[in-house]
Write a structure and sequence with these properties.
Elements: H1 9-35
């Protein structure tokens, strides 16, 4: 048998699980952005320091 074709099923499964979690996180982030859009181009002014 050749050792070149060995597959680490644990590593492959962890990558697949990570991709699924990434996808769910992306969907959740999109839903929150639609429900609660973040204000854009809002600049905060810093309070002036008193000496």
């Amino acid at each position: 048998m050749s050792d070149d074709k060995l597959i680490d099923f644990g590593a492959e499964r962890s990558k697949r699980i990570h991709d699924l979690h990434d996808k769910k996180l992306g969907e959740l982030r999109q839903a929150f952005e639609q429900a609660l859009p973040l204000p854009k181009d809002k600049k905060k002014s810093k309070p002036k320091k008193k000496r």
